[in-house]
Automatic annotation (TrEMBL):
It comes from the Bacteria. This is Putative 5'-nucleotidase. One of its GO terms (cellular component) is outer membrane-bounded periplasmic space. Gene3D superfamilies: 3.60.21.10, 5'-Nucleotidase, C-terminal domain (3.90.780.10). CDD domains: MPP_CpdB_N. Transmembrane segments: none annotated. GO terms for molecular function: 2',3'-cyclic-nucleotide 2'-phosphodiesterase activity; 3'-nucleotidase activity; metal ion binding; nucleotide binding. PROSITE patterns: 5_NUCLEOTIDASE_2, GP_PDE, TAT. One of its GO terms (biological process) is nucleotide catabolic process. Residues 47-66 are annotated as: Disordered. Keywords: Hydrolase, Metal-binding, Multifunctional enzyme, Nucleotide-binding, Signal. Pfam families: 5_nucleotid_C, Metallophos.
Amino acid sequence: MEIGDASSADRRALGEQWMSIDRRTFLNRSAATGAVVALGGAAGAVGPAGTAQAEPGTPAGAAHRHPRRASFRVLGTTDVHGHVFNWDYFTDKEYDDAAHNDVGLAKIATLVEQARAEKGRHRTLLIDAGDIIQGTQLSYYYARVDPITGGNGKRPPKHPMALAMNHMRYDAAALGNHEFNYGIPVLRAFQEQCDFPLLAANALDATTLKPAFPPYVVKRIKVPGGPDVKVGILGLTNPGIAIWDKNNVQGKLTFPGLVEQAKVYVPKLRALGCDVVVCTDHSGLDGGTSYGDALPYPENASSLVAEQVPGIDAILVGHTHKEVASRTVVNAETGKPVVLSEPLMWGMRLSVFDFELELRHGRWQVLSVTAEVRNANTVAEDPHVARLVRKEHQAVVAYVNQVIGTCKEAMSAAEAPYRDTPVIDFINTVQAATVKAALAGTAYRDLPVLSQAACFSRTAAIPAGQVSLRDVAGLYVYENTLDARVLTGAQLKDYLEWSARYYVQTPAGTPVDLTKITNADNTPDYNYDVVSGLGYDIDIAKPAGSRITNLTFQGKPLDPAASFVLAVNNYRANGGGNFPHVAAARSIWSSSEEIRNTIIAWVKENKVIDPAAFASVDWRLTRDGVPVL
Ligand SMILES: [Zn+2]
């Protein structure tokens, strides 16, 4: 595969060449057959092997000039996040949710085989839109406990996601932002193990500005009696990686925008003779940008790519964990439709794109593209995939069920979004203690250490009695690491005000529905921070931006000029959630150890979790000063 770059003059020339061919093709089609015949003939005109069939209404004498038809299918997954089995490693049970979704590649493999059988496997491609190697204890185990990079004195294991995806014969996958969570060496080891390319046209080497991963792959669909259909698959990842995984990528990789890089590579794919161009984007359809203007490129750009980059036929969308069966966006330059589909997450859905083509002047032209999603909960798991990964699954189940300590009282995160709960205090206690210990003997040893934490999972719970690793791991589901930043009292007030945007403004005197006062403007739970070590009220009757009242430190009003150390996760510290001041604040310490592991190590060392030792109510919701709860 060629991954070099064409000069901008070349690109302009290629772009013009293809624009003119497009226009000529369009005129020919309109003149020769009429748009109605061309479009109306698309359905059902394709034989089982994709060979040409006569079109109704074509003059008999022109039989040798009948346009040939072909069709093929692209299947797509996204945001699988380490799920092979329909299993929840935190609850040690089969996965379930309110909608009774099922998860994992083992079930997706069954849907894939069905879709291949319907279409003919030689006329089907399988792609993914990224976020593959992070998200479950299964994927964590092979990144950190028995890592695929080796180092345990034996041959490095194969990653279960590589085992499953190789068996399923994926043709390509885009890189997701979470691929970078364990650092570049783990990602490179995973890449080595995959029989298919990991694509990212907008992940560049920071020094050479050359692609650090293949930008695209070209696949051929065989058509008996006709030329192959050449399908270009372009992979695009998320510019937010520069913020979210700054510690892992800074100075090594740089991430330009999706639109910018698609404008470089789509013309290149057309120049290589691709009849069809499909993008796989780790970028949502048209949601907001969670990092504000900290980067010049939007986070969720797939609709923009469709609209602004000529020459794309379809886009597999990911990153936002949404289900969108089919969305059509018209390209502003060509007026042609681009079909997008996003198959939810975790292997809950499979997108199915169907392409119909027609041979004109020796070249395949796309007549139509349709998309749908299929639900993994309608099928059984594929026994081959299940058998292939069973041993790894069992090793991880044993690992997560090991007892690491006891807890004196049950703790739950269920009410953490609106009440100061012991389980969040626990995370903050461990984080503050870790930073405090790290700063001993430094110039910062006398500064007070505060700590931030958010509710990552409302179903997280630590039982009374024996505590297993999975109970503690479930408290902290992301691979965040810990950082220590110096902030002033005034900056902390701004920080808390930003966090309090999470609440829906609710006038005093009206009934309070606890299920409706949080997540204002779709703010996710993970972007609502509690700061421990301070006392404060959040007045949700007031507009966002002026809600923090009675802000105290050690019982006295917080001094705006005083300095504090904030124990803060790397996601937040690097600008995730666009919280004020923290990204620019001085970092005085950081660790590459995951916070999850730090908490697990704390339990192993202390043996007993006693909520009475750390739980206290330091913040509350009010309305015009009157407590809500
Ligand atoms: Zn994801």
